[in-house]
Amino acid sequence: xxxxxxxxxxxxxxxxxxxxxxxxxxxxxxxxxxxxxxxxxxxxxxxxxxxxxxxxxxxxxxxxxxxxxxxxxxxxxxxxxxxxxxxxxxxxxxxxxxxxxxxxxxxxxxxxxxxxxxxxxxxxxxxxxxxxxxxxxxxxxxxxxxxxxxxxxxxxxxxxxxxxxxxxxxxxxxxxxxxxxxxxxxxxxxxxxxxxxxxxxxxxxxxxxxxxxxxxxxxxxxxxxxxxxxxxxxxxxxxxxxxxxxxxxxxxxxxxxxxxxxxxxxxxxxxxxxxxxxxxxxxxxxxxxxxxxxxxxxxxxxxxxxxxxxxxxxxxxxxxxxxxxxxxxxxxxxxxxxxxxxxxxxxxxxxxxxxxxxxxxxxxxxxxxxxxxxxxxxxxxxxxxxxxxxxxxxxxxxxxxxxxxxxx
Length: 408
Hints:
The chain is α/β, with parallel strands linked by helices.
């Protein structure tokens, strides 16, 4: 028996094709949505944060949080556990995570030209041509970014990535189904002992990757018959110390027989390896209209391994919060437009879990009382001692972690 993956452009009759193939094979359908749910259960991350891994847009905090990498690690684990069974149809972007070495997978791509997809969008969702084209381009960008991140290929529909590429503007649903079923009968995609072993390797690799991200690490993982090879793809000053730490973590994963490390292709680039420090917040938003001050403060926090982003007014801060959800906000009071107190009020109304530290050079005792009553975590004055601010941030992070622990 085999596994079928279906990767498709939107409005390419994917649902109809999958329905027909499912009916013909009796295979179980596995979707991105179901795998996101499984990954959320394994990781404790919110489903929305895992879904964001499929988006071309990456959080401004990601180089400090590695949230996207963590989401993908847990998606891999959820998928690897699912692949312990055969007779599956994996629909969506997740199927691209299955290694090429797993030979009993029939990889299918459904695509069509823009004219056809625009017509289908109008028929299925009543979209205008302009609305359809915008939606198609946005989703194609997400798919292109996903494929490029995994394979370094800028064309998500490249024939080299699939066993069959079906042009849905030239084939109807019945013809596409027949073509898939014909290829499914090929001996090449039948399950063998060798292909079963590659699934076991995939599962162990996923477990190793999750073990690393739990400890704040990121490395390339390759597994063959229980032997693990780790690739360090970012520059690090004390390489031998990092190698020993990675080996220590991985060697404790059940099923690992040996661990080796090597320097990967990206090691000599300018980016620096960063382990996530769980004792400090990795998503700090600085809001202050004094540009030189706030940029300097951001740099000083980054030196202390705290990921920070900067906005210069309340409106921009509220917009960023709606997309990136920082853990802590450091907020000035006197700003043009929406001032700090009004920004604080709106943040606490919409995102009460964000801890807000007021940092001002103009505030009064009355302002302090208003801010604390609105739910501010702390009220500090400029110029602030960086050690005091760092300590306050760590205390805010402790409160955040405690809340997460209570929810978990």
